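[Meeting: bench + compute handoff]

Bench side (C.D.) handed over the final construct sequence. Compute side (W.E.) agreed to return the predicted structure before the next meeting so the bench team could plan truncations. Sequence as handed over:
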Amino acid sequence: MSASELGLAALIFLSVSVLLFVAVQGTHATLGRQRTVFTQETRRSLADMFIFADPAVLWRLNVAALFLVPLLVYLLVPSVPIVVVAALLVAIAPRYVLLYLKKRRFLRLHDQLPDTLLMMASALRGGANLGQTLEGLAKDMSPPMNQELSLVVREQRLGVPFEEAVSHLAERVRSQDFDLVVSALRINREVGGNLADTLQRLGETVRRRLMMEQKIRALTSQGKLQGIVMTALPVLIILALLRIEPAATGALFDTYRGWAVLAIAIVLEILGYWGIRKIVSIEV
């Protein structure tokens, strides 16, 4: 091998090494930023739901799943588009799991709110003050309402003003109904008035609103189910055709044109499902 060939080989080796080093450093920096964002958002979301888990452990589990799940999918179905879709689903799964948990807790809080307000009104009419009423409800109610009320009581014991403690409650729940309750408590604290009657009227109003929301959810549940069925039907048809006629449908997963068709189909599926959800979602 001549000196020029050795020099060219050394230059190529050096260039590839530099590119690999830059790629590794870039990947490490990107993962570091993603980990910071993930842990901060997850810690805040879990704390709001009174779930005390280590976000760093959840991050490591998510990264491990991001590598293992696509590998298992490739071993079962050696198709690049399916592997890419599996990786994307694993990447976005934690966010949607947190959103599902928050929504479920939010609905549970709303279901408990009318009974909580009526119990507060009864306790105030019985001669208890507001602090004693909140402390009693924090012991008697079931989660998640007792968790929120217990935090309000603990903040007051630590010296936090009542107005700030209930404002923190409204910030955690972020609901129009809870904002009304907090406003009523703060106004009564400042100017006085018959708080028991106010809470009873609020409880009855919230109860009627919840009944309306539940009725709307029942009436629109069929439309939501139809959206799920219509979205899943093309996927089931493709799986059936792969089983019945693998040679005819294999081009969808083995050629660039097939990948393009699958990408367009997935986008249209997502847009269709989103459109159905928007149609059947009615705000009260």
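W.E. noted at the follow-up: The radius of gyration is 28 Å. C.D. will use this when planning the next construct.
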